[in-house]
Amino acid sequence: MDSYLSTSEAQTQRLGRCLGACLRVGDVVLLEGEMGAGKSVLTRAAARAMGVEGPVPSPTFTLLNIHEGRDMRLYHFDLYRIEGADALYEMGLDEFIPARDGASLIEWPQMAEEAMPEDHLTVSIRYAQDGAAREIALIPSGAFDAARLEAIRKRMENDDEHPDD
Ligand SMILES: Nc1ncnc2c1ncn2[C@@H]1O[C@H](COP(=O)(O)OP(=O)(O)OP(=O)(O)O)[C@@H](O)[C@H]1O
Ligand SMILES: [Mg+2]
What we know:
The protein has about 160 residues and is α/β, with parallel strands linked by helices. It contains 4 helices and 7 strands, in the order βαβαββαβββα. It has one domain: P-loop containing nucleotide triphosphate hydrolases (Rossmann fold), CATH 3.40.50.300. The protein has helices spanning about 10-20, 40-50, 85-90, 145-160, and strands at about 1-5, 30, 65-70, 75-80, 100-105, 120-125, 135-140. Strand 4 (about 75-80), helix 3 (about 85-90) and strand 5 (about 100-105) form a beta-alpha-beta unit. The chain starts with a strand and ends in a 7-residue tail after the last helix. The relative contact order is 0.25. The model has no long low-confidence stretch (mean pLDDT about 95). Bound molecules: adenosine-5'-triphosphate (ATP) and magnesium ion. Magnesium ion (MG) binds near residues 40 and 107.
């Protein structure tokens, strides 16, 4: 497990960018954290790093938005409004978790927990001491290669020159 302290939206974007740059086809990322924690902020930054252009709106009502990136697609889920894993299966959305041609980033995965694959990266965002501070933990599960965390950390070090992008 790796953990980062973010004290601003820009710092969370930086982590999102570094994560996005390290994603591969078939990756499943579960974004955990309360409302307003920064799951969508982090996902948008990851999308940019994947070469997604244009708006990346929250899929609050659509449950899933699919974006074309440079080398692969981004499957951005927000399961807040779903009624369990069965609803996900009925809609056939589990086909994209994991996806054959992209990475799946999933907000509110606990709403359809049984449908989440064993191999994944959890990004857990917690409110820290003051309003803008967040503790962000990256926790690999199953066959998700823990060495990838090292790649993300290296990118974070090199991305330091532009903390406010
Ligand atoms: N350190 C920080 N990291 C990320 N966002 C921050 C931070 N500090 C303040 N914010 C603010 O918190 C909000 C995060 O909103 P965001 O939509 O990303 O949350 P979310 O976790 O996706 O919530 P929801 O569960 O409603 O989808 C934004 O308004 C952002 O400006
Ligand atoms: Mg969100």
